[in-house]
Amino acid sequence: MNKPLRPGVYVPTVVFFKGNEDLDHDTIGRHAVRLAKAGVAGIATQGSNGEAVHLTRQERQQVTRTTRKALNDEGFDSMPVIVGCGSQSTRETIELCREALAAGGDYALVLPPSYYKPSHKPDTILEFFKDVADASPVPIIIYNYPAAVAGIDLSSDVIGELAKHPNIVGCKLTCGNTGKLTRIAAATGAATLGDAGSNFMCMGGSADFTLQTLIVGGSGVICGIGNVAPKACVKVVDLFAAGKLAEARKLQAVVARGDWAAISGGIVSTKSALDTYFGYGGIARRPLPRVSKSEATECARDFQEIVELERSIS
């Protein structure tokens, strides 16, 4: 792997549109560079924050290609790009992994199939991920996000078994289950800030449990609030690494409140906050709603504390 994953903060980037809902490539690129300059360890495209379900296959490739080129042009050519490649069939998931590589991606983030939920027993899920990993030209990161896949919640036993595959290199746990994360991190000898371990990346799925993830031996987080406050998210990790736990706890509380604003308000609130505080963000693609003036004011209030923290960090 030319761009190895390292413990820290990864950001699933928001995708940006023009007024007519065409892709805004300039803003997509500028945003990726802003995150890189803030010190994040890597970027993920085509995740939930990236509205992958609203994009065509061609657009998905374009977003990844634009992100990779913008990073390379600004000297961040060693920064890994993780690409969401979830699909309902094994065949299409493998195709998306191949397209991710062609577009400049380094890793594939893969959800379990869920449309025919009653048919997807643990053995079926195991076979799905192993088949994808066998055929994918890029390493796989398992994405456990029950809310996005009809409630399918991969157990620590299933993820631990899949971690034995040489082309499965990590997991993202948006389930928020820190007990599960602890078990997986221990079973896999996950990479931590101070020890590369097995190099398996056991990642929390949101910033509101960054500190908890690090304390129990996890590798870091892949967090949507990093779109708004990447420096703040990175600072929590840096304080933990420096042994400044009291300071880390104080910042973690602010980050958790900001993360809740992003989680409860969804993509439209994240984009509204970016618009208000950083001058870009724009609309989400229909059928997601537009934000009214009163909603934008409320959103700005919800994000104010974490943005103030972000701006205070040099």
From TrEMBL:
Entries under CDD domains matching the protein: DHDPS-like (cd00408)
The keyword Transcription belongs to this UniProt entry's keyword annotation: no
Top-rank lineage group of the source organism: Eukaryota
Catalytic residues (UniProt): Y143, K172
Residue ranges that the Swiss-Prot or TrEMBL entry lists as coiled coil: none
Binding site for pyruvate: I222
One GO molecular-function entry: 4-hydroxy-tetrahydrodipicolinate synthase activity
Segments passing through the bilayer: none
Keywords attached to this entry: Lyase
Pfam families assigned: DHDPS (PF00701)
Family classification: Belongs to the DapA family.
Protein name: Uncharacterized protein
